[in-house]
Amino acid sequence: MPSVPTLADGLAVGCMGQLSFAMAALHVDRVVSVDESDLALAILRLLELEKAVIEGAATSSLAALLGGKLPDLKGKTVVLPLCGGNIDPLVLRRVIELGMSVDQRLCRVQVTISDRPGGLAVLTRELADSGVSVQEIRHERVFAGPDVNRVQVQLVLEVRNGEHLELLIESLRKKGFNAQPQGRDLVDEL
Predict the structure, then answer these.
(1) What CATH architecture does domain 18-101 belong to?
(2) How many CB atoms lie within 10 A of CB 40?
(3) Is 104-189 a domain of CATH 3.10.150.10?
(4) What is the secondary structure of 174-187 as a DSSP string?
(5) What are the residue boundaries of the structural domains of the chain, listed by start?
């Protein structure tokens, strides 16, 4: 079986060793798969709630629980061994951002605004009033369409959760902004 890049690199082996397999076969009832989003969210939850830096392979059991892969354990007392903090700081930064994106706390939104002086100030005032933190902002004039008096602004925003994002989009639209969430299947939901 070929190895693929993953946050759980400690588990990404092409073939399990014979001795390890024999030992695991005595104690393992089942194996489930988790995706990178589940791993990133598990790492983020442990970092935020437990103040613990745990590598991807060690968070796989929590990722399975958070990802709904073990519904029969719901409501039961469960012990999850968490060992291993061997994660590169630059990878950890990207994992935190991915986890926040999966958790709908970091999102991309595209808004069309006036390209006249003060147009951006009006938008940022609305964002501030909504309790949103702007992480990144980019103007797109050339490919914004034929109206030379309008500009597309692409934003990376930090919000409280998905509901906060929905309220923000609704509020911006009510105030005349053409606001569109981008990525993570939000376009279909909103």
Answers:
(1) 3-Layer(aba) Sandwich (3.40)
(2) 24
(3) no
(4) HTT-EEEEESTTHH
(5) 18-101, 104-189
- 133-140, strands of its sheet edge to edge: 133-140, 150-158, 106-114, 178-182
In 3D space, the residue among 96, 95, 68 whose CA is nearest the CA of residue 7 turns out to be: 95
Got the DSSP string for 30-44? Answer: ------HHHHHHHHH
Nearest to 129 by CA among 117, 121, 140: 121
pTM of the shown model: 0.75
| Weakest-pLDDT range from 27-31, 100-104, 156-160, 186-190 | 186-190
Write down the pLDDT at residue 85.
83
- With 80 as the cut, is the pLDDT of residue 186 above it? no
8 A C-beta contact, residue 87 and residue 96: no
How far apart are the C-alpha atoms of 165 and 171, rounded to whole Å?
Answer: 10
pLDDT computed for residue 188 by the predictor = 38
What local confidence, expressed as pLDDT, does residue 187 receive?
A: 36
Average of pLDDT values for 87-114? 92
